[in-house]
Amino acid sequence: MPVISTNTAANTAVRFLNINANEQSNSLAKLASGSNINKASDDAAGLAIATKISSDVAALEQASTNSSHGISVLQTADGGASNIADIVERMKVLASQSASGTVTAPERAYIQAEFEQLQEEIDGITESTRYNGQSLLNGTSDFADDTVESAPTALTGAAGDVTITADTTGVISVNGTEIEIKGEDALDDTLTVDDLVKMIEDGLHDKGVYTIEVENDGSTLTLSSLDKGKDAVIEVKDVSGTINVAALGFTTTKTTGTTTEKETTGADIVVGSTSADTINLSIKSLTTEELGIQKLDANGDGLDVSTEEGAAKALSVLDMAIDNISNARAELGATMSRFEFRSAQIDTSVENLKAAESAIRDVDIAKEQAQLSASTVKVQAAVAAASQANQMPQNLLSLIR
Fold first, then answer.
1. CA dihedral defined by 15, 16, 19, 20, rounded to 10 degrees?
2. Is the pLDDT at 37 greater than 70, yes or no?
3. Strands (DSSP E) along 115-225, which ranges?
């Protein structure tokens, strides 16, 4: 029904003009920003997912940096440990030279002078190998390995003296080193605890073993190892003869050391998007005291190569120190390898997550350009329709003229 008071056609045309103009504005905004989501109403669920992915990517990028820092710490520590290993090898050369019977006392004094300087240099390196102001190899940094290791010391025996005859002998093995136990020339001989201590010590030292200590507290004999940890072992067993381990009064034939982890060991490096994604970075102390190669003190602990016997002891203990340094460097290398693999995995995750976020958040330029073209045409059509609708009342007035 044609009327002039209400222009329904114009209202309809304007409504569609507003709709088409809004579509055109949205398309222009997406093309200008490059984003498919400029406001929450564009895609509420997609926005929530993309925001979560974006936060994970940011955390992973920082985790990648953390991993790189961890590798740098380990590389710095390994550099110092490598120098310490070289020094200990030189110390072994000096000990071997001093242990030779062709070297005189004055020459051993010169050897001892260099030996002491090298001992001081090891502690100097452990102090000066720093990362971010922290000494890495002396056990004082946040990365210090606080693991508690104990040596096997439980082997005790000879609570009472052992009476043997001249023709009874035996061979026992202490950690693979065979030692002969025998009486004196008398038909009946009382083998005291001190006698046992001397026989075992002499047997070990004759084979160049100084890492096992034999002690007598007045009534019992105790064997202990300078080596520590769960892999350190003291084992005494029979090899041959009529005097056996049981006859000597040993209550235990094999004991091992212990390794107790502590919660304060090392530092947890975050290498993921949550606090649970961590790698523990711990560095063992490589001081002369920790390695058992410190200067000789009043208690007889430490090394001194100014005598032939002291040099022989040093050779044995330095071998143990070299093993401990090698183990420490192996642990550094293993942790470094783990950081490198985790870093590569983080980079892959970041790449994939960014691709997933792009699929949700980024606009499809070709599709949106086509949408803009269609919206532009519809806006133009709506404008033309509104113009025509506004002419309809004028045409109706001609009927009453």
1. -150
2. yes
3. 130-131, 134-135, 148-150, 155-157, 162-165, 169-174, 177-182, 188-191, 212-216, 221-225
Question: What is the C-alpha to C-alpha distance for residues 13 and 293, in angstroms, rounded to an integer?
Answer: 96
Cross-sheet strand order for the sheet of 254-256: 177-182, 169-174, 233-241, 254-256
Give the pTM. 0.80
List, in sequence order, every residue forming a beta bridge with 295; answer none if it has no partner: 303
- E-assigned strand segments in 67-135: 130-131, 134-135
Q: Which of 284, 295, 152 is nearest to 227 (CA)?
A: 152
The domain spans of the chain are: 1-34+371-401, 53-140+272-352, 155-259
What is the tally of helices (H) and strands (E) in the chain? 7, 15
Task: Take residue 310 and report the two structure tokens written for it.
Answer: 């002291």
Instruction: Tell me the two tokens of residue 24.
Output: 């055109």
Q: Is the pLDDT reported for residue 31 higher than 90?
A: no
User: Do residues 143 and 130 touch, judged by C-beta distance below 8 A?
Assistant: no
Rounded average pLDDT over 231-254: 85
Bridge pairing between strands 188-191 and 162-165? antiparallel
Secondary structure class of 187 (helix, strand, coil): coil
Q: Which CATH architecture has domain 155-259?
A: 2-Layer Sandwich (3.30)
For 174, other C-beta atoms within 10 Å of its C-beta total: 20
User: Side-chain half-sphere of 75: how many Cα atoms within 13 Å?
Assistant: 9
**CA triple 263-268-272, angle to 5 deg:** 140
CATH architecture group of domain 53-140+272-352: Up-down Bundle (1.20)
